[in-house]
Amino acid sequence: MARSRRSWAQLLLLLLAGPGACAASPADDGAGPGGRGPRGRARGDSSADEAVPRHDSSYGTFAGEFYDLRYLSEEGYPFPTAPPVDPFAKIKVDDCGKTKGCFRYGKPGCNAETCDYFLSYRMIGADVEFELSADTDGWVAVGFSSDKKMGGDDVMACVHDDNGRVRIQHFYNVGQWAKEIQRNPARDEEGVFENNRVTCRFKRPVNVPRDETIVDLHLSWYYLFAWGPAIQGSITRHDIDSPPTSERVVSIYKYEDIFMPSAAYQTFSSPFCLLLIVALTFYLLMGTP
C-alpha cells in the first residue's frame, strides 16, 4: 500500500514539473553507450555534425519563406495586386476623311492636340464612335440639332470633374439651358485630362428606341460644337458666344475632313476685308492721277 502511494506521488511530481523534467532519450541527447551521439556519432565529431543539416520545420518558418519567395520582388516589395490601367490611345488624324469623319476648329493645320476643338466619328458595327478634344479644363461637347440653333438638341458632353476624372454625360438643350438626362446612351467610355485639354472617346448606338432626348444617328443632323469651364464637375456657359456649327447636315455614313478657322484666322476671309483688299490693290495698280 505504501509502495503504491509512493508511485502516485512520483507521478504527480512528474506532471507538475512539466515536459522539461522528462529525461531525453539516449538517442536524442547523445548520452548513449560508448559516449556516442545520435545514430552512433561520437561526441565532438564536428565533421559528422556538418554532414547532417538542421532544418526548422515549424509552420511559421515555412509560411514566412513561402511568402518571401512567392509574393515579394527582388527588392523586397510586394508585387502589385492589379494590372496597370491602359493609357488613353491618342486620336489619329491621319485617318480623317478616310476611315472616319473629322471636324477641326482653330489654327490652320491643327490636329487633335492643338485645335481649339476637334471631333471625329466613325461607324463600328451598330455603334458610332466619337472622339472629342478641346483646349479647356472643363468640358467639351457635341450636339445633334435639326437646325443650327441651340434648343431641343441631343447633347453628349465629356466633363472634367474635381477628382481629375473625365465623365461622359448626356444632356438635352432646353432653350439656352442644358439639362442633364439620366438615360445615357454612351458606352465604352474613356477620357483624360492632359496638357490643359479634355479628351474623350465613347460609342453610342446608331438606332435607339423612340425618345425625345435621344436622336437616331442614322438620320442626318447639324452638329453643334461647344466647350467651356466646369465648376465642381458641372458645366457652365461655353467659352465663345457663338460656338461653331457644321455648315450642313452631317451623315455618319460619309467621312469628310472639315476645317473651320477660328475667329483669329477669319480676318482676311470676311467680305469687308476682301472688298478692302480689292480696292487697295486697284488703287495701287492705277496709281494716283
UniProtKB/TrEMBL annotation:
Domain of life: Eukaryota
Protein name as it appears in the record: Ferric chelate reductase 1 like
Protein's organism: Ovis aries
Organism placement in taxonomy: Eukaryota, Metazoa, Chordata, Craniata, Vertebrata
